[in-house]
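Q: Okay, next protein. This is Fe-S cluster assembly ATPase SufC from Lacticaseibacillus suilingensis. I've checked the sequence twice, so it should be correct. Can you predict the 3D structure?
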Amino acid sequence: MSTLEIRDLHVKVKAEPEHPEILRGVNLTINSGEIHALMGPNGNGKSTLAETLMGNPRYLVTQGDILIDGQSIVDLPVDERARLGFFLGMQYPAEINGVTNAEFIRAAINARRPEDDPIPIMAYLKQLDETMAVLKMPEDMADRYLNQGFSGGEKKRNEILQLMMIKPHWALLDEIDSGLDIDALRIVANGVNQMRGADFASLIITHYERLLDYITPDVVHVMKDGQIIETGGPELAHQLEETGYEHLKAGEGND
């Protein structure tokens, strides 16, 4: 079993050192095989946490640590974290002209393999076709430029296609339900559920319980004012749907 540990993490925007910290002492432990949900109001640090875990150089860790099996990764760049098995499903996926989906995903897979052992092209194409069928994606999306001209729902499915093809150990999924209708939500959730297993863990950021009706988390956390203020089981998400976040105050939780 592998463990991701976030220990007393404080973070601010590197270009704005005079501004207050966005994360103010986050403590969180995720074990392989677990799905964790992170909920909370907008603007309280959830996306900043995901970006910091992925190594976005925009953010500066001013205190605390991020560890995999006891080894710090806080100084590793994005590409090295990706090779360790980190994956970020972004809230607003970038559009890249001139690079097709198929080319991008194959390059990402090969980046985690030995240089002299790339994935065989026929095996790759077979796996790509099968995975796109699971996500009900038209075949021509493989040949379209990465996210170029995609609708919001197509971008979200494309993120899950990358997730299922790359097979990371640690998936940071930031609002993958944003803008999806109910049919698309079921398809995206099914893709995430197919990834569940002993070698996979995920931190899913969402505002709404509806995603968690389709992906049942092992643990639910609530973030407010840059801190984890409450942790519980799946029932916590249902409670928040009824009560909202206004009653919660930073410092009241158990993390």
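A: Here is a summary of the prediction. The two ends are 22 Å apart (CA to CA). Residues 152-166 form the longest helix (15 residues).
Q: Noted. On to the next one.
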